[in-house]
Design goal:
This protein has 297 residues and is of the alpha+beta class. The chain has four helices and 17 strands.
């Protein structure tokens, strides 16, 4: 953690969130989590040795820490943000890099989500946020990490139940917001969630067989190298809980499946990704009497 996390946000008597920069002496402020009275510590001094302005508990409250408050406030803002996107029927596009292969994934976080639940009970687990489909199945969980990582038992449960874990690490108060207007707060949260630290899902050819992903292969006619005869090309689409995405590369299993269904198919190398993809070859202008279609693996 770069620097000590302090209480930078309080609530007033009306329940409004107040950022430290906007706080004034003579007004009562309270802890957003435990609701106990805060003291405003804002000297106005700057420079070496001076402490950053912050709120502090008037009386020590067990288990109510700045880290806990940051976790609580971020979670509340994130739920507000997701509900806002759902109400407006907008896709929530986010991206992440696979921790195993480095592949950059892209998806719609709310593609199949109909409800967002806070502290939803799953067996012995209670993830910060659970994303459910219309059948009330949990598709993914969001864990917000400030100091305490998810317990090993919870991680194992998610794997066994094929529930996708999305992890967001917070390191400072600025991960929540710099200013406390509603829109700016949501924007700051949105930046973090659209680039989560870990997502336990990867749609790359190296990893996707480990996950619950549907694969659709499409084939189409195009001209041979001489532009004289029709030959087959192939496209791959992978479909996860975050929507359908194209993939230019194929696994060895996918390549073998295509070769078992079609004649005269060879393996080629994608010059950009160095991955494999199939392409039929024109042998003596041979016609391949198959119509356009989309077989499923």
């Amino acid at each position: 953690m770069d620097k000590e996390i302090l209480h930078k946000i309080a609530v007033d008597k009306n329940g409004n969130w107040i950022y430290i920069n906007n706080a004034e002496k003579g007004i009562d402020y309270y802890c957003p989590l435990c609701k106990k009275e805060f003291i405003l510590r804002k000297s106005g001094k700057t420079g070496k040795g001076s402490r950053r302005s912050h709120f502090a508990h008037n009386e020590l409250t067990p288990n109510c820490t700045p880290e806990g408050v940051l976790h609580y406030l971020f979670k509340k803002k994130l739920i507000d943000l997701l509900e806002k996107y759902k109400a407006e029927n907008k896709p929530f596009i986010f991206n992440w890099h696979c921790v195993s292969c480095g592949y950059k994934n892209l998806g719609n976080l709310l593609e199949k989500v109909t409800s967002v639940k806070e502290e939803y009970t799953l067996g012995e687990c209670r993830p910060d946020i659970a994303l459910l489909d219309k059948e009330e199945n949990v598709l993914a969980v969001i864990e917000i990490v400030v100091t305490h990582e998810p317990e090993e038992g919870a991680l194992q449960y998610y794997k066994e139940k094929k529930i996708i874990l999305i992890r967001i690490d917070l390191t400072s108060e600025e991960d929540l917001q710099i200013n406390l207007t509603s829109e700016e707060g949501l924007i700051k949260v949105e930046e973090k969630v659209k680039n989560p630290d870990i997502v336990d899902l990867c749609m790359s050819p190296k990893c996707r067989d480990k996950y619950k992903i549907n694969k659709i292969i499409k084939y189409f006619w195009h001209e041979c190298g001489r532009g004289l005869h029709p030959v087959l090309g192939f496209k791959m689409e992978v479909d996860s809980v975050f929507g359908r995405q194209p993939s230019s590369d194929f696994t060895e299993e996918e390549m073998n499946w295509i070769k078992s269904k079609f004649n005269n198919v060879e393996t080629r190398i994608n010059h950009d990704t160095k991955g494999k993809y199939p392409r039929s070859i024109c042998l003596n202008c041979q016609r391949m009497g198959r119509r356009y279609g989309s077989p499923r693996l």
